[in-house]
Amino acid sequence: MPSAGHKLQLKRQLAWRLVPVTFAIGCLFSLGIPAAYYMLEAEDVGILATTEARELADRLGPLLVDVPALWKYQGPKYRHLLDDFLRHSRVTSIQVRDASGGVVPEYTYRVAGPPDRWTAPVSFGTVPLFVNNQRMGSVTLGISHAPLLWATLRLFLFSTAVGVSLALVAYLYPIKVVNKLEAHIEDLVAALNERTQQLEAVRTVAVEISREPDLKAVFHLISQRSAELVGAVSGTVWLWDRKAQVLIPVAWHGVGDWMREWRLRLGEGISGRVAQRREGLIINDFRTSPYASPRVLERTAITAVLAEPLLYRDRLLGVLTVHHQEVGRTFTERDREILTLFVAQAAVGLENALSEQELGRSVAS
Amino acid sequence: MALWRVLLRRAVLFSGRIVAEGNTSMIRSDWLNARRLLTLRIAMLIGLAIIVGAMPGNGNSMAAETPSSPLIFAGSGSNVAITRLLAEAFHRVHPGITIEIPESIGSGGGTRAAADGAVAVGMISRRLKESEQSWGLTVLPYATTAVIVGAHPAVAEDGITFDELVLIFRGIKTRWQDGHGIVVLTREPGDSSLEVLEHKIPGFLAASTESYRSRRWKTLYTDQEMTRMLAQTPYALGLADLGIIMAERVPVKALKLNGLVPAAEHVRSGRYPLAKTLAFAFRRDRLPAGAQAFMDFVRGPAGAKILHAYGYVPEE
Fold first, then answer.
1. pLDDT, tens digit, for every residue of A247-305?
2. Cα angle value B84/B221/B130 (rounded, 5°)
3. Of A74, A84, A132, the CB nearest to B106
4. Which position among A10, A262, A275, A326 has the lowest Cβ density within 10 Å, counted as fewest Cβ atoms?
5. 8 Å CB contact of A84 and B110
6. Are A41 and A147 within 8 A, CB to CB?
7. Rounded to 5 degrees, what are φ and ψ at B315?
8. CA distance B159 to B148
9. Cα A203 to Cα A192: distance, rounded to the nearest angstrom
């Protein structure tokens, strides 16, 4: 089991494993989506080029005469047709060939641009050119990918932003969860260690008490060790006087000797109430509690009280109380569980000591 | 020129007779005699061909008169239909000369092709432009025809005015009187019919230019396409030639213009204001004899008769 100070380093281990995964997510989004978009759209541009070429060929066919040598003299009409055709078109180049494959220069069209400008890829579509129902050449039409490249660039920027965000989330969220988990595990380990230490302390104290022949020393041991177990600064051991039906303080520390003459009946104060109910009690707001005795409030700085009955086979032997005297410090259910364990052991030791004392008296008499 | 034509014809006829004789000889004589005779005849034919080919003269004109090299007349769509009819009639009289008339390449294309020598004769339906006048072309008018405002036969109205026409092209008048929408079909700028209207009808040039710039109407690029679309498109309106409609027998309604029927007599009298002249344009120095013969035919009585029959006013 790791010690309380030992770090599990889950975060570090996870971080190393997450780096390639998140990198892959980032790349997939920022590069994969634009690439897929470009490929699909480029195919569409190719189809569009063929469709546009077909439309131009359909419009050009009825205009042209079936003597290719005369096509160049139809240039002015073709230019009007082209003006009309190009109005809603993204066409960047057109080439008309006759049946022999020769280019008709008068029908060649190319979008003008600076000669040193970078040219984007172009998709071409070629369809046959029919004049008077005879195949007399072909029309090749090109559509530039420049608008598509701009759109892809915009998509790239957007998908990069999304990809990086997703990668960050995919990296940071598990780290955050593991962080919390690690803290929780560390808390659990710490609590377990503390509990183990307390149990060990309970066992040690029980052994110590059982070995102590002096009853007074037993009382003091119970008072001291119980306070140490739960981190309290003071404590009191009350013994139940069956004849007088009162609780008598037999050992205390940190509260002053004024307690010596103090007696509590059942139901009186916190210890009397615990004795009456035979059930432990935590009072963390002692200074304002209705159970608090004015005498205690006057003479001590107690702020919180944890009290447990000392029972041996359901018979009340006394009450053990431990106190905090610092504002803000409180007892927890865990403190109470520890103290319950302790008082069970202490009650056995106390009963044994009391029995031995009784036996000694009987022998002496 | 005529001498070479006669010589060529003789040569062709002579060779035909020899071949005919040879065939009978093959039946009557033995194989050796037949072979000798055939060799002699082939030698004579080759000799004749060499003599004829070596004679100085215009190669084009020679080729022009052989049936295997037709003379190409190309140009405006307004001329195509009627000139084809004239060419058919001419071919019947002169079977040795074939005139071939492809579809429209426009008046501009016709003049340029004639100037370049790509065609024997160019056909135009407008005057030569300033830029074309320096190309050394001779223009020979042969007919005048009415430019009509044509409509689909379904159109109930039978007349239109200049003002209405301008309003239609401006996109203000959009419906016929019976409520049906007017489908305007127009031609590309520079078309000869359009130019006639632009010159004759006040305000039409601006309306036409603006409508073309805004692509308000469907633009067609040949006269043939225009007449076909007018016949096929219900409630359509467009510009056409009276001659084309009659020559091609297209069911297009010729609307009265300002109450005047577009007819040849009104064109001749000048009462009908929209008319255009069809003409041949050619380089006189390259003109093939066959082409000259054809033009003579067109401008002669036989040509005038045909032109009359199809609503044209022959050039006197």
1. 999 999 998 889 888 999 999 999 999 999 999 999 999 999 998 888 899 999 999 99
2. 85
3. A74
4. A326
5. no
6. no
7. -75, 130
8. 11
9. 16
